[in-house]
Amino acid sequence: MLTKEQILTWLEEVKDPEIPVLSLIDLGVITDVTVSENDEKVTVEMTPTFSGCPAMDYMKRNVEEVLAKNGVQNFEVRMSFDKPWDSNKISEKGKIALKNFGLAPPPEYNLILDLDILEHVNCPYCNSDNTDLKTPFGPTLCRSMHYCNNCRQMFEQFKPL
Amino acid sequence: MNTEALKDLLYKIADDQLILGHRNSEWTGFGPILEEDIAFSSMAQDKLGHSLAFYSLLHELGESDPDTIAFTRNANQFHNSQLVELPIGEYDFSLIRHFLFDNAEILRFDMLTRSSYTPITTVATKLKGEVKYHVLHANTMIKQLGSSTEEAIGRLQNSLNEALPYALGIFEPSKYEAELIADGIYEGEEKLKAAWLENIKKVLSQTQLELPDLTTITPKNGGRYGEHTEHLQPLLDEMAEVFKIDPTAEW
Ligand SMILES: [Zn+2]
């Protein structure tokens, strides 16, 4: 009998294509996995980070491939806003992985997005808060660009949302 | 619940996003500086994502699938405001349009998070955060450039004067206004416009730009009822060509 735990272990190998150190589970986009009692049908529920993120289709296909590779015959991967993603859903492990990758992790916040949480983002290279927001739009939809006045270099942040 | 009223609301929102998304994407590779090139490209991606989310809601209500809706209608079947279909012009104009449009959009999304129609609430709650970044970008750029050089201020002021009648067309009431309000689906264009005006005044007051006297301006209405400028159909033709679908004559 397939179990949810088993499937989650397999899915751990699926990474965000734009941030190859971050698994989809740590990113928080896998919102549910169910195995139906009678026919062992596996349903994986996913939700997009940013709605226009072109990598989401790719991630969905990767999930399907991993299920197929592990011999699951009857499965469905669904993408919806039913349990919408926000950046607080990135796991602690995921935040550490982001920082080691050189991307400032999004701060835990009260889901009311204002300018204050974008200024003075902690620099992933030197940990200084003496930083400025340069632009809320970076090389991918989920990143903003900042400048560290302490170590004098540009860095990117995984934006809070 | 009046389904026709609901569809009308969803169409105008989705069409605004689709058309402005395509206009914004025209800046890719042509931004005045790399950061703005990236910003307009990112916002284009977001807007197209948003239109897809709203077209999907329409599909759930029995309309065609999102691609068919997006790429096979003619101009007179589009409900977007005329503001979003205007050519990108110079950067000043695109920035002003982005400022005027997204400050309305964020308030519209905020209203929709309180809608009695749950599928809208879910989508609006999700997308509101993304629009917040658009507003943040617009307001920051307007504050910076709107109090910089005389030339920049002059150019922005001209664009503001030019765009404002079209921006007022965003709030053209639909024929279902009363039903939507009564059913608690949407709080209405009148209320949206008042809140929008307050917000844009707040930003403009921190610049040397002046908001023209609105009582002297006739809004460029008609977009919500399928009346468009000559700029929309060529854009739709181009979009349809890209997606390799022939536009249908009737729908
Ligand atoms: Zn630093």
Tags for this model:
heterodimer, A: 161 residues, alpha/beta, GMP Synthetase, Chain A, domain 3, three-stranded mixed sheet, 26% strand, elongated, B: 251 residues, mainly alpha, Ferritin, binds zinc ion
User: Helical element count of chain A?
Assistant: 4
C-alpha Rg of chain B (nearest Å): 17 Å
Give the biggest sheet of chain B.
none
Gap between N and C termini of chain A, in Å?
38 Å
Helical residues, percent of chain A: 10-25%
What are the bound molecules?
zinc ion
CATH architecture of chain B: Up-down Bundle
CATH top level assignment of the largest domain in chain A: Alpha Beta
How would you describe the shape of chain A? Answer: elongated
The number of domains of chain A is 2
Mean pLDDT of chain B: 94
Question: What's the Cα radius of gyration of chain A?
Answer: 17 Å
CATH topology of chain B: Ferritin
Distance between the termini of chain B: 25 Å
Oligomer state equals heterodimer
CATH topology of the largest domain in chain A, anyone?
A: GMP Synthetase, Chain A, domain 3
Low-pLDDT residue intervals, each spanning 5 or more residues of chain B = 246-251
Could you characterize the architecture of this molecule?
Chain B: It comes from Adhaeribacter terrigena. Chain B: This is Phenylacetate-CoA oxygenase subunit PaaC. Chain A: Residues 119-159 form the PaaD zinc beta ribbon domain. The complex is a heterodimer of chains A (161) and B (251). Chain A folds into two domains: 4-85, GMP Synthetase, Chain A, domain 3, CATH 3.30.300.130; 94-158, no CATH class. Chain A has four helices and nine strands. Chain A has helices spanning 4-11, 24-27, 55-69, 92-100, and strands at residues 15-16, 19-23, 30-35, 42-46, 75-79, 103-104, 131-135, 143-148, 153-158. Chain A has a four-stranded mixed β-sheet with strand order 6-9-8-7. A three-stranded mixed β-sheet of chain A has the order 3-4-5. Chain A starts with a helix and ends with a strand. The model of chain B is unreliable at 246-251 (pLDDT under 50). Chain B is globular and about 55 Å long. By secondary structure, chain B is mainly α. Chain B contains ten helices and no strands. Chain B has one domain: Ferritin. The interface between A and B is medium-sized, with 24 and 25 residues. Bound molecules: zinc ion. Zinc ion is lined by residues 123, 125-126, 128, 148, 150-151 of chain A. Zinc ion (ZN) is lined by residues 123, 125-126, 128, 148, 150-151 of chain A.
